[in-house]
Design goal:
heterodimer, A: three-stranded antiparallel β-sheet, B: Aspartate Aminotransferase, domain 1, seven-stranded mixed β-sheet
Chain lengths: ~130, ~475
């Protein structure tokens, strides 16, 4: 397990209390944070939504199965899925290796991105946890 | 220092396909007395790739594999939530009796009175143990028992004129509960337990409504804690017309101590293979009988065993029954073993539960200064620790579990329940002697010392097992399922 000061948390991203991240913008990539992948352990299977699915922020949108447990991912923003990262189907471990670049999960055309934290606020939350 | 060099002679053994030779066979087939027929050419192919072996090749293969195995007959198996108690050999003896093993399941009632009598009496015994009114023995295991219970919930609400959509499931319930309710078409609604690890009536009151069919509670829950508020929770659910399901997988903690009827339970399943000592896991099939209160009896699966004068009969005339759940009479061999266990223990079943609870509390008290105990209160049949004290040494629950193998213990359940981060869930059962439990405690303390002084021993464990640390990730990502 990583210590909090070992976590990779990019500056320009937005974060949720359930450890998802989203880019800033109108059409954004989303995924789970370094903290989430570290806690889950080696991810062995990812079930992604389908292109065209619509979610409100906080809706269950994907499932991550690791050697320890099966976890839900909650959509960090509201909007419609426009693309999914198909590479995760064969290589779910990309989320462990590189949760922000190669391990992005899907792209959303955003209708609302309210209630997200910046890096400083997310880090503060993790320290409190 | 505890001995961690327990390894004896371990013989290697290849796959069956890597043994034998072309044309070798284990038996002599008699000469055919009839002329060979020519099969349709569409049916002819080269055939499957069977290994070709002699009898002794086969016997040695499986005997050697069996020496790599670990079971409750080999050593302590404190696998939380699974109740891996010792299975008395008497159970096997009765289950092998000629009258039972030769009894065809399609015999008419009057030719199998003994087998029906055993079923009837086992149902009665389970009613007495739980305080409920009627049992079905059909469900093949716990999860099928849950499915049966959910179908009964649905049948009850349907009869009352309004089907309901939701079921409340606490975060300390068994993982199969939400799956069983979803399989039945209900929507599982999550309920968080309180900071003390048990459910609180106000939380139930907030979400219980007239579209909720009921609640599924595991009691004692997966933290090994007794749901002390269950009676009040049951009243809240009943007030809104709902039903209370108890996942009775943890019954080993409360036999003879708790009447399910008194605490407001309407439906329960029991795991005969856990509480009533029949081999399970890799050792045999399960049985998950379901008990109900009188008002729900008409919905139980058919056929039902009844006593008519001094005769036992199968009766399928229950128009509101949810139907048949299992071919014939359930996993009958398991029923014989559980019946034997109950009769041989008699009123000492209460003693079983008190000792199971005592053993778990003894371990909890002896290890809580060394391992982090998230809920420091009296537990029931199992206690839950975490790896929190070893995080700074980069030692995880998995490492601790693997190191236990080196000392000849089966590891506890790990990373479950999910509400506890890095859970180590220990259920010693009543079977273990004080000496064996003391040895387990000493070993756990030694592992805790090693974690701080030389964590690599744990990272590289097990050192003595037949196979070393397995790559679970690779096995899950790229499973190889053929020989």
């Amino acid at each position: 397990m990583k210590e909090i000061n070992e976590l990779n948390l990019p500056e320009n991203f937005l974060y949720t209390e359930q450890h998802e991240w989203a880019e800033k913008g109108d059409v954004v990539k989303v995924g789970v944070t370094d903290y989430a992948q570290d806690q889950l352990g080696d991810i062995v299977f990812v079930e992604l939504p389908e292109v065209g699915d619509s979610f409100e922020k906080g809706d269950e949108c994907a499932t991550l199965e690791s050697v320890k447990a099966v976890s839900e991912m909650y959509c960090p923003v509201s909007g419609e899925v426009v693309e999914i990262n198909e590479a995760l189907e064969d290589e779910p471990g990309l989320i462990n290796e590189d949760p922000y670049e190669k391990g992005w999960m899907f792209k959303v055309k955003v209708t609302s991105a309210d209630g997200l934290m910046d890096k400083a606020a997310y880090l503060e939350m993790l320290k409190g946890a | 220092m505890i001995n961690d060099k327990l390894t004896g002679l371990v013989l290697d053994e290849p796959l069956l396909w890597e043994k034998g030779s072309r044309g070798r066979i284990g038996i002599s087939i008699p000469e055919a007395e009839v002329e060979k027929a020519k099969p349709d050419k569409d049916l002819v192919w080269e055939g499957p790739d069977f290994p070709e072996l002699s009898e002794v090749d086969v016997v040695r293969h499986f005997t050697r594999l069996s020496t790599w195995n670990f079971g409750v007959d080999t050593g302590m198996y404190p696998l939380g939530s699974c109740t891996m108690k010792y299975n008395p050999k008497l159970n096997e003896k009765t289950a092998s009796m000629e009258g039972f093993i030769s009894s065809h399941p399609l015999l008419p009632d009057n030719l199998c009175q003994g087998t029906l009598k055993l079923m009837y009496e086992l149902q009665e015994l389970l009613c007495e143990i739980t305080g409920l009114d009627a049992f079905t023995l059909q469900p093949a295991a716990g999860a099928q028992g849950e499915l049966c219970g959910m179908l009964v919930f649905n049948a009850f609400h349907k009869k009352n004129g309004k089907r309901r959509k939701k079921i409340i499931i606490p975060d300390t319930a068994h993982g199969t509960n939400p799956a069983s309710c979803a399989l039945c078409g209900f929507e599982p609604v999550g309920l968080n337990s309180g900071a003390d690890g048990i459910l609180h009536p106000d939380a139930v009151r907030e979400i219980m409504d007239e579209d909720t069919a009921g609640i599924m509670i595991t009691n004692p829950n997966t933290l090994g804690l007794f749901e002390e508020n269950i009676k009040e929770i049951a009243e809240i659910v009943h007030e809104k017309g709902g039903l209370v399901y108890c996942d009775g997988a943890n019954m080993n903690a409360i036999m003879g101590a708790v009447s399910m009827r008194e605490i407001g339970v309407d439906v329960i399943h029991l795991n005969l293979h856990k509480t009533f000592s029949t081999p399970h896991g890799g050792g045999g099939p399960g049985a998950g009988p379901v008990g109900v209160i009188k008002e729900l009896e008409e919905f139980l699966p058919v056929p039902r065993v009844e006593k008519n004068g001094d005769k036992f009969i199968l009766n399928s005339d229950f128009p509101l029954s949810i139907g048949k759940l299992h071919a014939f009479h359930g996993n009958y061999g398991v029923l014989i073993k559980a019946y034997t266990y109950i009769l041989s223990m008699g009123k000492d079943l209460f003693d079983v539960s008190t000792k199971a609870v005592l053993n778990a509390n003894y371990i909890k008290e002896n290890l809580k200064d060394v391992f982090h105990l998230p809920y420091d209160r009296p537990c029931m049949h199992e206690c839950v620790f975490t790896d929190e004290n070893f995080e700074e040494y980069k030692v995880s629950t998995l490492d601790i579990a693997k190191r236990l193998l080196d000392f000849g213990f089966h590891p506890p359940t790990i990373y479950f329940p999910l509400v506890v981060h890095g859970a180590i869930m220990i259920e010693p059962t009543e079977s273990e002697s004080k000496e064996e439990i003391d040895r387990f405690i000493e070993v756990m303390k030694q592992i805790a010392r090693e974690a701080k002084e030389n964590p690599d021993i744990l990272h590289n464990a097990p050192a003595n097992a037949k196979v070393k640390r397995l790559d679970e990730t690779l096995a899950a990502r790229k499973p190889k399922l053929k020989g």
